[in-house]
Amino acid sequence: MNKEEKLVVNAIGRKVPTRVNGETVVPFKGVGQHRPIGNKFGQRISSCIDFPNDGNKLVSSLKESLIKAGLKDGMTISTHHHFRNGDLVANEIFDIAAELGVKNLIWFPSASFECHSSLIKYLEDGTIHHIEGSMNGQLGRFASEGKMKGVGVLRSHGGRYQAVQDGEIQIDIAVIAAPTADFFGNANGVDGPAACGLLGFALADSQYADKVIVVTDNLVPFPCLPWQIQGNYVDYVVKVDTIGIPEKIVSGTTEITKSPDRLLLAEMTAKFCEYAGIIKDGFSFQAGAGGTALSIGIYFSEMLKKKGMKARFARGGSNKYLVDMLNEGLVEYILDGQTFDLDGVKSMRDNPKHVNTSPFTSYNYHGKGNFAQLVDVVILGATEVDVNFNANVVTHSDGVLLHGIGGWQNCLFAKCTILPVPLFRDRIPVIRDEVTTICGPGELIDVIITERGIAINPLRQDLIEKLKNSSLPIRTIQELKNEAEKICGVPIKQKFDDKIVAVVKWVDGTIIDAIRKVCPQ
Amino acid sequence: MNKEEKLVVNAIGRKVPTRVNGETVVPFKGVGQHRPIGNKFGQRISSCIDFPNDGNKLVSSLKESLIKAGLKDGMTISTHHHFRNGDLVANEIFDIAAELGVKNLIWFPSASFECHSSLIKYLEDGTIHHIEGSMNGQLGRFASEGKMKGVGVLRSHGGRYQAVQDGEIQIDIAVIAAPTADFFGNANGVDGPAACGLLGFALADSQYADKVIVVTDNLVPFPCLPWQIQGNYVDYVVKVDTIGIPEKIVSGTTEITKSPDRLLLAEMTAKFCEYAGIIKDGFSFQAGAGGTALSIGIYFSEMLKKKGMKARFARGGSNKYLVDMLNEGLVEYILDGQTFDLDGVKSMRDNPKHVNTSPFTSYNYHGKGNFAQLVDVVILGATEVDVNFNANVVTHSDGVLLHGIGGWQNCLFAKCTILPVPLFRDRIPVIRDEVTTICGPGELIDVIITERGIAINPLRQDLIEKLKNSSLPIRTIQELKNEAEKICGVPIKQKFDDKIVAVVKWVDGTIIDAIRKVCPQ
What we know:
The structure is a homodimer of 521-residue chains. In chain A, 25% of the residues lie in helices and 21% in strands. Chain A is an alpha/beta fold.
């Protein structure tokens, strides 16, 4: 970030840059206030004359495919996180780039994981200029310490689709690691040793990238079905020995939480939904994959059984418990964005009512509506919440980048958004006067549930009215904050350097906040 | 067609215009000779802020939806032929347009049928300026007699996708008649009283049209699954009483031919494939829906059973006989573009190995390959073939537009293309010195099979070699032509006016031929 570049205060009161990595950006204008103009990006027109007559797009190695795709300095290279911490492909791409002496690449992952920490050396030696995507663990610390050459750009899953669709970012080469594929490039995530469920995070890349490479360790005869990625978008197919570490891709089993605090949060959340009249025949819900969220599913399950009702659909992250609900008829459909365990993978493969979705269908804000807004209640996490219900998911209170946004921003458009959070973590209050980073505007966050009380957003007088006579501990958010501070003390404000190390985009592509370099403690 | 507009002779020797309906067009340059430049069309960027928060896009009537979509003079309106001769929606659109006094519309159907003949009155009164799509029956005669204001543009199914994708035609309003849909616009063709199988012909329109209207008579709660059309592309949903006449959409049963001539053609074709070594384990084929093609499927079936082999896939048009092959394990997958009977619909709905495809996956020449080229043998019809193996499917020898191109041009890219045709029809020879209209270049047409002999294209020395010692009556195409003329006499050349009434596009968007006004006999 050039120091001379202009900062402005955006509609939510955050000082953000107007240019990022040399490109003009739009500061956040308020929820629903930014109307896009212009047309979607059009991929370069291809022709069958430039592809093999017999449909066989196999090349001998990832290196060969990257060379054929024209890998060169400054390109934007995309990868995807459906292998989570078991991905072996992204690192190999940049090993090859470094070997070829290519510099200043932009890495555009749908998310990064701890397994990508070895890419720090390429951020240091200039192979990678910067990352557009979440930065966790060591990568997050590296960026937070101001060591990355460019400015990181954090987007939600829906925002990533939007950015690609709208041409805000143009992918030169997309590398799609696929658990199963055919020589034509049709690919899926439900079969093969690295089965991960679905490849939805790579959809935008297949549709809009200039060159698309599918890498698989399970090549099947044409046609590979289902074709979650359509070969008609694919330039090259590479067969390798291993694309991922199965046990790090999906866990064999999913554990619900044993923590009494988390169980309490889950129970309070489920009860809140019941009192609020959300749990009814044909309702819909989405909960994350953490232990608390899993437990909420179990409570919902019990409530539905007791009432003799069923949910119309659940949006996933799917896991054994959600699959059980589907199989027991407690939920009619799973609209799944990511499978978290082998039960999820198997169910998506075999049950036509367990459907793979994509950031386009579920989350794209620059579509003609999306699924997230149809969900009756969504239960999400947060690292911090402020007294105006604004919330943070990307940094902790020490200011270090630690999490991606995932679908979190997109999910806020559900009819009711609940954040069950502990009142404090490691004696650091979660509810604060101001969050370190705003990822979601408070007006979209309806309920904060802590083990010591529930705060309902004053904008939701309907919910306040419904919960008036419940047995649940309804408080104001200020009361919750005070209670935390009574126990932990008023937190000391983290100091930051002026240097902007990353920006957080809102679902419409505008800049909602900037993340600054952390000062050494 | 303005008389002053320039004509040129294209690479296949036909005199074609360089401008059509006021737009510059590219004359055919030869197979694989036209490399497109530029980028695909980008649909206008939408935003969730302009769509209902709850995802409910229902409006009260087709008329209201057309008004909301901004229907006005000169717009391009698209419809689709998945209801074949049972469509009730296309006529209603133009009834509404006429009622509203809208003029000069371009109708862009994926195909037209006899049931659309009532639109002639709107071609006469200026509601519709011209048709870009096939013109059959009375519509074909109307156009052929030079009565349409604009010039008709005939495209293959793949060419239609290509034209929309490349922005050669920009659809203002797409109206997608859907046997089942939800309020969000997700839609499919496998359920509901008007079930037709699939909605692939409408895919391009959903992706690229400015406004998309889904019309259904079977509204189901969200989510409508499978979502062959994705609601994220849809602006409005209309519920009406009836969208189609089921018995005209799909026939309850499919009949194989009882004509001895056609059975002979089918048997000769199947035998040819056997001698040519095409029928082997894992092979693939596509045959049309006519009686001859159906019978070929039966011969293939018997051959596979006898040999203990199976086909890897069949491309459809599906019907009872193909579904039987799938169920008996004689073919592993049906990759279907159009279901022709209720067995096809049911199989597509219930059998995951019976997969719906689209003109994008199967036929788009401006993609990174397509399925058609992967097919080992395709069996197609033709109205005429010339001594250079060029063939015609859109006009008969009297010059009148009578058929659409369908997927015919796209299928020519299969590894072996066979046209089984009678040597003459109504005493008019099918093999001629010159076809009335060139739809497919002879270099892509490998074999002509008639009841009196088989001609192999001299370009296919490999096939000539293989069939050398077969018992089949291998002749030259000239011999076949001579034999027909010995029986029927040399056909009198049809006379045409100079006026161009329609053009035929090749799969790459270039003009392969022009169709001229017929002179009164």
